[in-house]
Amino acid sequence: MKVYTRTGDEGQTSVIGGRVSKDDQQVETYGTIDELNSYVGQAVSLMEGETFEDLRQNLLEIQHELFDCGSDLAFVKLSESKYKVSAEMVERLEQWLDAYEEENPELERFILPGGTLLSSTLHVCRTVCRRAERGVVTLGQAKDINPEVLRYLNRLSDYFFVIARTANVRSNVPDIEYIRSKKVFGNKK
User: Fold this and answer.
1) Residue 144 CA: distances (Å) to CA of 37, 41, 77, 148
2) What region holds the Cobalamin adenosyltransferase-like domain (predicted)?
3) DSSP 44-109
């Protein structure tokens, strides 16, 4: 099988049910999700040993679900019966979020992306996820989309933030506080 088809040489690409310009918002959005999936794969490759096995398994599942997100956005015209991303996937992310947040120290100030290489990579995942989310919002203003994709990406970016902190905790590396930040989290009086 040849990888190249030459069908995109004029700036068009196939989506499910038709062809669109390669710079179409639909292609931009699922392309950003594909970029995110690559960074998730990079994060997975940094997780060695038992310390991160649960996170590694979660991220492998998320990689499949990111393909589902892209699939849901790749249709010219969707029917709800073909949606892959569901409310149950969002709820599971919330459960994971709650569990991993328990491992992390309370935040008082904003933190800088960093610490370990794994944590830094997970912060990159978070920011690319937010960009994908913005793309889904823009796409949703132009065409009907599965609303669960937007909810999923919103929760997923929160998940990346939380597990980036968990990766530092498990590596005994503190988060780096933004020194110009006032105390904005925790007990407010």
Assistant:
1) 23, 29, 8, 12
2) 3-167
3) HHT--SGGGHHHHHHHHHHHHHHHHHHHHHSBSS--GGG----HHHHHHHHHHHHHHHTTSPPP-S
Assess contact for 40 and 59: CB atoms under 8 A: yes
Which residue in the block uniquely carries the two structure tokens 């409310």? 87
Q: What pLDDT, in 10s, does the model give residues 2-38?
A: 776 765 566 666 666 566 666 677 888 999 999 999 9
User: Could you tell me if 122 and 160 are in contact, meaning their C-beta atoms sit under 8 angstroms apart?
Assistant: yes
What is the rounded CA–CA span in Å between residue 161 and residue 159? Answer: 5
The tens digit of pLDDT for each residue in 47-95 reads 988 999 999 999 999 999 999 999 999 876 666 568 899 999 999 999 9
Q: How many other CB atoms sit within 10 Å of the CB of residue 48?
A: 10
Of 86, 104, 100, 115, give the one whose Cα is nearest residue 177. 115
Those residues with Cβ within 8 angstroms of residue 169's Cβ, 6 or more apart along the chain or in another chain: 103, 104, 105
User: Whole-prediction pTM value?
Assistant: 0.89
pLDDT at 181: 84
Token couple for 189 = 């009086």
Question: Mapping DSSP to helix (H, G, I), strand (E, B) and coil, where does residue 114 land?
Answer: coil
Question: Is residue 149 within 8 Å of residue 50, measured between CB atoms?
Answer: no
